[in-house]
């Protein structure tokens, strides 16, 4: 029994020593500055993630609303141009290719 009492005393003494070292290290100015920097970095990262998420949501919903009608209209225009080319070749008239940049003299 006496040996158990000694072990408990030695453990409590080592815990006290480690607690005092740990408390001294955690109370140091370097540790406080590190904690403050880590908290600031976490706050900035959280705000950045929120802003990025909001921007991604806006871009995605805008594309869903505006993208498919634009793609469908461009496909219709391409089909119409192809149909006009086929009709003009059947009629024997030379097909006029629409030019993007026509000279204006």
From TrEMBL:
Bias kind Polar residues: ranges: 1-17
Region (Disordered): 1-21
Gene Ontology BP term (one): intracellular protein transport
Topology class, membrane: Single-pass membrane protein
Tagged with keyword ATP-binding: no
Subcellular location: Mitochondrion outer membrane
GO cellular component: mitochondrial outer membrane
Parts of the chain that traverse the membrane: 55-72
Main location: mitochondrion
This protein's record includes keyword Transport: yes
Keyword field: Membrane, Mitochondrion, Mitochondrion outer membrane, Protein transport, Receptor, Translocation, Transmembrane, Transmembrane helix, Transport
Family in the record: Belongs to the Tom22 family.
Protein name: Mitochondrial import receptor subunit TOM9-2-like
UniProt source species: Olea europaea subsp. europaea
């Amino acid at each position: 029994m006496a040996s158990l009492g000694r072990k408990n005393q030695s453990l409590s003494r080592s815990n006290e020593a480690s607690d005092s070292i740990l408390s001294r290290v955690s109370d140091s100015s370097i540790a406080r500055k590190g904690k403050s920097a880590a908290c600031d970095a976490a706050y900035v990262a959280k705000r950045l993630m929120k802003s990025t998420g909001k921007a991604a949501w806006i871009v995605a919903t805008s594309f869903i609303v505006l993208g498919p009608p634009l793609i469908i209209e461009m496909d219709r225009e391409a089909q119409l141009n192809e149909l006009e080319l086929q009709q003009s070749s059947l009629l024997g008239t030379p097909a006029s290719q629409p030019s993007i940049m026509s000279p204006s003299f």
